[in-house]
Amino acid sequence: MAEQLDPAPYDALLLLSFGGPEGPDDVVPFLENVTRGRGIPRERLKEVGQHYFLFGGVSPINDQNRALLDALHKDFAEHGLDLPVYWGNRNWAPYLADVLREMVTDGRRHVAVLATSAYASYSGCRQYRENLADALAALEAEGLPLPRVDKLRHYFNHPGFVRPVVDGVLASLADLPQEVRADARLAFTTHSIPDAAADSSGPAWEHGQGGAYVRQHLDVAALVADAVREETGVEHAWELVYQSRSGAPHIPWLEPDICDHLEAQHAAGARAVVMVPIGFVSDHMEVLYDLDTEATAKAAELRLPVRRSATVGADPRFAAAVRELLLERARAERGLPVERCALGALGPSHDLCPIGCCPARAERPAAAGADSPYA
Predict the structure, then answer these.
(1) CB burial class (10 A; 0-12, 13-18, 19+) of residue 147?
(2) pTM of the full predicted structure?
């Protein structure tokens, strides 16, 4: 048992997330951080920020990360895993570089990193690795010792991620009027990204139409739909759809958009739809606004019964999955045999992102991969 709970060589876990504003005065500075280098005027950012201002200028993501931290602390304590957990963000306080500096000051030298993004893509994986490299470069410039950072593998098909999603769908179906429940369609939603970014997502051998990004989402959607059928005895038709597009209109992005999809389903005679945000770990702003506000308003306009199922959030099963992913990687780093838990057809993802995985348009250093300058 002691061997199974040994986190060595890791001396800390870092929860790495996107970050979000926590008040009206934070909104534009936060968006400036998110869009830095793109030359977007401040006035345009104020327009974009209206989604946040509708909710008092507060994104729920930071509180959700605090809840996940609490769940991790509780799970680790209950299982006798003695490992400190830190939290850092890419775009808002607590900033990643500040947290890594704190970790180094605390004597941490080998850090496991859990990113709050479950799938392969530039924005969902490599950009986190680039941010880690930026933070390490800042520490290096200050003459501080550099910790080794290892990003835990993608967990989209881990049972601790999938099963809470299944339960969320079951609860949403049960909440629909009984007369339309059996006919409800499932709309699995995730963040739209440019077609080119999707096609080049994952390792080079997985590049192609939709790449690993679309393939992974389709695999999870099929897993969830099959589990719902087994639980209810009803086979619900389903589709993978997209939301939260933010790019220039002339650049192709993944489609259909959730609102367009709802219109199409209504026109085809659908009686109800459950929106299943499988692309998101928690109910942050893109769920709160794009689904709970915008898409729900579209459904009301169409008089189409709709429900939005829960994300994984701080579910204890997800916290347990994080512990399992951490200990799995620790055993692999110690050269011990590892049983990797994964559902579906794709199997467990790689520990180390290979060269050419989720490439950026402009090459930048990225930590925690085969091409890392900080081995």
Answers:
(1) buried
(2) 0.96
